[in-house]
């Protein structure tokens, strides 16, 4: 049976009174046929015949590279059989030597269990007695010892690996025979967790070396912009990139489905009207209504589909909305449409049941969280609906890729929310269709994280000069060792061996989602427990203050206690059935900037370096979950100011540009900005808008959560009080490497920021929440002024020669007095 | 505890002692036998210090009262106690030190009897040890910079001192040992800094006893802060100790003689805990091994080979001596690497394995805390430096750890305050029959580490971390070998004592009030926090 509805048929069949030209883009992606390589070309005959199918070309290419002794990074599409690469490699090695051992590192425990089953099935098919064991916090002690001694394949996760390295002598045999290390879903390791993963993998490599193992690395990754660089940074080894996808793909119909306004006008997702104060809310039909309806329609018309929502509650609500819609519009003759929701909040049994029904084809549709984005076999799914942009291109395609097996034709729809990235993507379909994928950012520069792993490494085995190459280079390692000796954590020197001085386990101090030792435990009030990683201080202050709501794996909690005055700080949560969420507002000051690198962009000077950032999260706002409307503002968080030394990037505006733009927009006055000189409202609103917009669009270029970035626009730069400019900084102590990448890709981001403000359908100089406004803004999004912002960006991007010419032709210098004014 | 020459300073943190009774403090003081007690500033508590003053008949230096600078001399060693670094700055601030800077504080209470400081006397320029809790590293993890608060002041002090003063601070743990450097008037200055504070470990903190000699050399031994008084008994934490006292048990001897029924009537103590507590009291008070089970000590029916390894620290970079005692042949053999080759730290390990494989088909090694240290590192060294014996090690060699068997697996209760081998042996009445100075393992390890690093031109020429003497001391290999031999013979004796200890009566005896069997139904006891502390890492020195 073919796909039941194409894009055109979908529109034709949609209930007339619900359709008002939602389809903004209709794109057909052509089918791609598979490129096969006979399995016997790369595998020993007995494996090839047992396998019984041919390989796709990229799998064969990867296996050849491995045979040549290379490390590989396989970066291909969803369902392109990446796990077969290492599964077959293990099988091939096992045939040569049944004592072969391999270490498989997955991002999460849940994924580990899925992959265990898949690998077992492959080895069964091949008729090999390869034993596979999952070794993590859920494995009991006896099973652990069996796995250490016997399992050929040990599956674990990064956080677990950090701990197990401490007891390496118990793994002596395993390490000696370890010939393959696999890092699955490598693209997911970015930011803080990425740094930790990179160091943990280096520590693992070092321990394996000690016992005589000499493993090759296999990394698998979704499509990212820099697979080779990313893999090298993570694994510390150079890799051969395999990205020429030989897997087949069916024809895909992709619709950009823009919810209409309430009164039925098209383009509703971006229609806004001004309400009280900063209150901005879309008057369009929200994506949370539109997407479930569209999904229900597909499911009822013979297109089994997945709906991707951003919370557990969202999946449950979607079922209600879909059912209402079907009650009203479903043709009686089509029979019952069978829908289910799927998320981690459901028990294991219920999830297995849904998975089973999906596979058996007895479900017409599933509304899911990201839980079904990777791993689990979803059976015959023909359609996917995205309720909102998932934040990255990789995830966008990963989700769409869940529909259509092999060369089956599929249909997908993207339903944008009234949010910055959604609106940008809606207006720039080429961004997802043609652009280079985001670059994954892992930064090894962060010293607080580096120090932790140097100490762990020294505890595991004496550190010597030979380790310098993998551990930051001689100079940096010497400095870290000297630091450790001075504070009493380390002893000895790099020529004899540096060791740890205490009897405890420094590995316990490592929390892969936090930047250092000052972490907060996350607990649940009462007897129950919550499976929540400890969080860093910056995040605790920002999002876990008393009264904050926390969305964890789709469930909403409220922070009822925040305790920092004890050896192990913690926050306590309680489940909260509320229909608002909270956002803290920040006020930022920056000082002691230190330039590490500098370059010219047009007539501007752009700097990257370190600075001290003080962030005050004094107040927070409650907003309605469905509309984003402000319910209460100015509530007190009670947290003290947060000071960090971090990496930042900042642009210095040349005085001539500042003068010209200030003069050109001196009439613009925002009556609420009483503390700023009125004639500067236009210009300051401009650089403030650029700072907001650049942070907002940064996920389009980098794998970054904008919450990890902050900014400040000021007319007195700390190191040059006679200049104005704007900052973007990394929101954790020591930095994340994001501002460094923004520094490198500044022009591209500036262009995207400009497009964001000029293309937004709000048409307002002061912007809207989908373009310039930032819910975290500590200045209530005032002033923001896009005409001045685009002038500044144009000056930034123009040729400096022409610019100088133009300035000379322009007016007189104005008042040179410079009252301090900073807006974050 | 073994005694060494010099002044014994016991450094205490009050938080570890806040619920400790005077009687328990006496017990602690008797055990540690200090010449001088120093209370670190962090967490200082007047209630604890006043109890200490009553319990101790010697100088107690605590941070209570006005800040002062004063000195104490004990056994020919001079300590200066400086309550605030500014006072030191004032005292040395002018060419002729005047008393102006310190007389606002005046002298402390008369408890510091040997005080040589006086309102009118200048602060001495040449003490052996200067103690100031203001000395503390200031760190910046982002820039990887660490400096020492108070460095300038102590550098100027050192510049004037004739000998080399060692600086001590309660703001750092007693394991801290680092030589800071500074330059005063163009002259490079060494600033050895040692910690006095409690050493952290899992469970309770360890208090430090520092034996300080006149040459600036400090030997640290630790005293588990939770194992004093009734707290020394397995199964007794602070709460239970209080309840025992309320019931009238104020000493371990009392508990050793208590009827089980009476112990059981105390809240929170059940049958098995009562037995456990009493067994432990008997073991300590009667200096004997008390068996809980009648299982044989492993290796069962085998020929144990007693082993001990000497390394250069807690996380060894070298195994330089391996001693083996075979009681069946009454023969001691050792493998020593006097070359201390950095390029091959596995020399001794390889020689040991060659010998072992040649002499024994299925050797059964026994090491005290071997599962925690000796076997762990031997295994690691075999893998790296003698890989051809990896299989022999894995397949043929059996490893046994009587400490693990007795304590972690709960088969027996040992006498001695800690379960360190020498302490258990001493409690059992074995005395070392060696005509050499007892040398403490940590100091020896440190000397080895220094030797390993010294000659290399790429390392600082000054010894690392060794705040003791500026010049390296030679390693007396013969002495070290004798020491190792004494160790493995002692281990054999303790092993025999455990193997020969009989469960006190028949094996049924549940419920009998006295003279009952020491075997409990169910075997494993409830493991309380106290029992974990009993097997804590504090039992071992490197």
From TrEMBL, chain A:
Bias-annotated ranges (Basic and acidic residues): 803-824
InterPro entries linked to this entry: DEAD/DEAH_box_helicase_dom, Helicase_ATP-bd, Helicase_C-like, HRQ1_WHD, MZB, P-loop_NTPase
A Pfam family it matches: WHD_HRQ1
Region: Disordered, residue numbers: 252-286, 335-355, 799-824
GO function terms (MF aspect): 3'-5' DNA helicase activity; ATP binding; nucleic acid binding
GO biological process, one term: interstrand cross-link repair
SUPFAM superfamilies assigned to the protein according to its UniProt record, in alphabetical order: P-loop containing nucleoside triphosphate hydrolases
Domain Helicase C-terminal: 290-448
Leader sequence residues: none
Domain Helicase ATP-binding: start-end pairs: 63-242
PROSITE patterns, alphabetized: HELICASE_ATP_BIND_1, HELICASE_CTER
Nucleotide-binding among keywords: yes
Keywords: ATP-binding, Helicase, Hydrolase, Nucleotide-binding
Protein name in the entry: DEAD/DEAH box helicase
From TrEMBL, chain B:
Biased composition (Polar residues): 522-535
Keywords per UniProt: DNA-binding
One Pfam family from the record: HHH_5
Gene Ontology molecular function, alphabetical: DNA binding; nucleotide binding
Start and end residues of each stretch annotated as Disordered: 93-120, 451-472, 502-542
Ranges of residues in domain Helix-hairpin-helix DNA-binding motif class: 228-247, 261-280
Presence of the UniProt keyword DNA-binding in the record: yes
Protein's UniProt keywords contain DNA-binding: yes
GO biological process: DNA repair
Protein name per the record: DNA-binding protein
């Amino acid at each position: 049976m073919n796909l039941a509805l194409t894009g055109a048929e979908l529109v034709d069949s949609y209930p007339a009174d619900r359709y008002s030209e939602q389809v903004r883009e209709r794109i057909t992606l052509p089918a791609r046929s598979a490129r096969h390589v006979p399995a016997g070309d790369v595998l020993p005959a007995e494996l090839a015949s047992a396998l019984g199918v041919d390989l796709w070309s990229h799998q064969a290419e990867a296996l050849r590279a491995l045979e040549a002794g290379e490390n590989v990074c396989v970066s291909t599409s969803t369902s392109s059989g990446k796990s077969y690469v290492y599964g077959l490699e293990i099988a091939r090695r096992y045939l040569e030597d049944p004592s072969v051992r391999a270490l498989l590192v997955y991002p999460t425990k849940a994924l580990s269990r899925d992959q265990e089953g898949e690998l077992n099935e492959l080895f069964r098919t091949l008729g090999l007695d390869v034993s596979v064991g999952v070794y993590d916090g859920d494995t009991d002690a006896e099973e652990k010892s069996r796995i250490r001694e016997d399992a050929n394949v040990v599956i674990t996760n990064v956080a677990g690996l950090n701990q197990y390295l401490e007891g390496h002598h118990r793994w002596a045999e395993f390490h000696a025979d370890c010939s393959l290390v696999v890092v699955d879903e490598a693209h997911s390791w970015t930011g803080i967790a990425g740094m930790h993963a990179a160091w943990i993998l280096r520590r693992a490599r070092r321990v394996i070396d000690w016992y005589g193992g000499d493993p090759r690395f296999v990394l698998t990754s979704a499509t990212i912009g820099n697979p080779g660089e990313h893999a090298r940074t993570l694994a510390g080894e150079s890799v051969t990139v395999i990205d020429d996808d030989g897997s087949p793909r069916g024809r895909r119909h992709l619709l950009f489905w823009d919810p209409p306004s309430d009164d039925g006008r098209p383009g509703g997702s971006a229609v806004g009207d001004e309400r009280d104060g900063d209150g901005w809310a879309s008057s369009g039909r929200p994506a949370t209504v539109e997407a479930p309806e569209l999904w229900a329609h597909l499911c009822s018309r013979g297109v089994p589909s997945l709906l991707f929502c951003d919370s557990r509650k969202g999946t449950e609500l979607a079922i209600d909305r879909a059912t209402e819609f079907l009650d009203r519009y479903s043709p009686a003759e089509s029979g019952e449409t069978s829908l289910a929701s799927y998320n981690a909040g459901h028990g294991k049994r219920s999830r297995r049941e849904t998975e089973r029904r999906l596979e058996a084809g007895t479900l017409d549709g599933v509304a899911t969280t990201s839980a079904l984005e990777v791993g689990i076999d979803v059976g015959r799914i023909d359609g996917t609906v995205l309720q909102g942009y998932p934040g990255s291109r990789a995830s966008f395609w990963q989700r769409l890729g869940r529909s259509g097996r092999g060369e089956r034709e599929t249909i997908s729809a993207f339903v944008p929310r009234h949010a910055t990235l959604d609106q940008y993507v809606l207006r720039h379909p080429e961004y997802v269709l043609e652009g280079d994928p985001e670059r994954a950012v892992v930064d090894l520069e962060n010293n607080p994280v580096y120090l932790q792993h140097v100490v762990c490494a020294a505890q595991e085995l004496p550190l010597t000069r030979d380790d310098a190459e993998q551990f930051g280079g001689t100079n940096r390692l010497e400095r870290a060792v000297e630091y450790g000796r001075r504070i009493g954590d380390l002893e000895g020197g790099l020529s004899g061996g540096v060791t740890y001085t205490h009897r405890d386990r420094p590995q316990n101090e490592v929390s892969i989602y936090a930047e250092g030792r000052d972490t907060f435990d996350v607990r649940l009030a009462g007897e129950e427990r919550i499976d929540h990683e400890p969080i860093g201080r910056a995040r605790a202050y920002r999002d876990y203050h008393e009264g904050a709501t926390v969305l964890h794996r789709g469930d909403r909690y409220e922070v009822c206690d925040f305790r920092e005055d004890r050896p192990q700080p913690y926050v306590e949560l309680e489940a909260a059935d509320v229909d608002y969420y909270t956002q803290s507002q920040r006020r930022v000051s920056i000082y002691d900037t230190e330039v590490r690198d500098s370059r010219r962009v047009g007539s501007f000077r752009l700097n990257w370096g370190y600075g001290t950032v003080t962030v005050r999260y004094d107040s927070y706002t409650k907003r309605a979950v469905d509309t984003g409307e402000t319910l209460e503002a100015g509530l007190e968080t009670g947290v003290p100011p947060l000071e960090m030394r971090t990496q930042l990037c900042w642009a210095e505006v040349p005085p001539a540009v500042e003068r010209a733009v200030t003069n050109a927009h001196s009439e613009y006055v925002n009556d609420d900005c009483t503390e700023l000189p009125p004639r500067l409202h236009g210009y300051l609103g401009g650089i403030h808008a650029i700072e907001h917009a650049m942070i907002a669009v940064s996920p389009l270029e980098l794998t970054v959560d904008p919450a990890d970035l902050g900014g400040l626009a000021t007319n007195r730069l700390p190191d040059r009080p006679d200049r104005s400019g704007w900052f973007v900084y990394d929101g954790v102590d020591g930095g994340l490497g994001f501002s460094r990448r923004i520094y490198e890709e500044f022009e591209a981001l500036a262009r995207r920021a400009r497009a964001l403000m000029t293309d937004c359908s709000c048409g307002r100089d002061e912007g809207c929440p989908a373009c310039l406004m930032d819910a975290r803004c500590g200045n209530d999004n005032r002033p923001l002024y896009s005409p001045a912002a685009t002038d500044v960006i144009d000056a930034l991007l123009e040729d400096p020669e022409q610019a100088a010419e133009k300035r000379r032709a322009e007016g007189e210098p104005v008042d040179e007095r410079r009252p301090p004014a900073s807006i974050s | 505890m073994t005694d060494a020459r010099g002044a014994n300073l016991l450094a205490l943190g009050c938080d570890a002692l806040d619920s400790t009774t005077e009687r328990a403090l006496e017990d602690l003081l008797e055990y540690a036998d200090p010449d001088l007690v120093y209370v670190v500033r962090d967490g200082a508590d007047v209630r604890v210090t006043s109890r200490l003053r009553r319990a101790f008949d010697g100088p107690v230096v605590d941070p209570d009262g006005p800040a002062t600078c004063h000195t104490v001399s004990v056994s020919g060693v001079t300590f200066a106690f400086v309550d605030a670094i500014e006072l030191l700055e004032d005292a040395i601030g002018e060419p002729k030190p005047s008393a102006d800077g310190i007389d606002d504080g005046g002298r402390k209470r008369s408890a510091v009897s040997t005080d040589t400081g006086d309102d009118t006397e200048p602060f001495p320029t040449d003490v052996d040890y200067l103690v100031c809790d203001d000395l503390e590293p200031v760190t910046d993890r982002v820039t990887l910079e660490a400096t020492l608060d108070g460095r300038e002041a102590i550098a100027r002090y050192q510049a004037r001192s004739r000998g080399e003063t060692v600086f001590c601070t309660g703001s750092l743990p007693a394991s801290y040992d680092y030589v800071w450097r500074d330059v005063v008037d163009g002259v490079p200055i060494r600033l050895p800094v040692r910690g006095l504070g409690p050493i952290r470990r899992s469970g309770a903190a360890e208090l430090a006893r520092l034996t300080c000699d006149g040459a600036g050399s400090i030997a640290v031994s630790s005293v588990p802060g939770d194992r004093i008084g009734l707290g020394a008994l397995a199964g007794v934490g602070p709460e239970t100790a209080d309840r025992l006292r309320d019931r009238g048990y104020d000493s371990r001897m009392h508990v050793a003689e208590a009827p089980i029924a009476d112990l059981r009537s105390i809240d929170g103590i059940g049958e098995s805990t009562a037995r456990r507590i009493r067994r432990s009291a008997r073991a300590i008070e009667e200096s004997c091994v008390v068996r809980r089970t009648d299982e044989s000590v492993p290796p069962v029916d085998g020929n144990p080979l007693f082993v001990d390894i000497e390394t250069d620290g807690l996380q060894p970079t070298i195994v330089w001596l391996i001693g083996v005692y075979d009681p069946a042949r009454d023969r001691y053999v050792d493998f020593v690497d006097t070359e201390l080759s950095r390029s091959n730290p596995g020399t001794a390990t390889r020689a040991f394995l060659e010998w072992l494989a040649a002499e024994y088909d299925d050797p059964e090694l026994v090491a005290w805390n071997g599962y925690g240290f000796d076997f762990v590192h031997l295994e690691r060294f075999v893998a790296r430096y003698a890989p051809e014996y990896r299989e022999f090690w894995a397949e043929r060699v059996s490893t046994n750890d009587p400490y693990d068997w007795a304590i972690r697996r709960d088969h027996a209760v040992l006498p001695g305050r800690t379960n360190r081998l020498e302490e258990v042996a001493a409690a059992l009445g074995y005395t070392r029959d060696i005509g050499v100075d007892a040398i403490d393992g940590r100091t020896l390890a440190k000397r080895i580490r220094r030797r390993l690093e010294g000659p290399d031109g790429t390392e600082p020429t000054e010894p690392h971390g060794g705040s003791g003497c500026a010049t390296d001391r030679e390693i007396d290999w013969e002495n070290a070998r004798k020491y190792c031999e004494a160790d493995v013979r002692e281990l054999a004796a303790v092993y025999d004592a455990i193997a020969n200890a009989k469960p006190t009566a028949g094996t049924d005896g549940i419920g009998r009030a006295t003279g009952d069997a020491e075997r409990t139904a169910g075997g494993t006891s409830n493991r309380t926090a106290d029992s974990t502390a009993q097997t804590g890492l504090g039992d071992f020195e490197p």
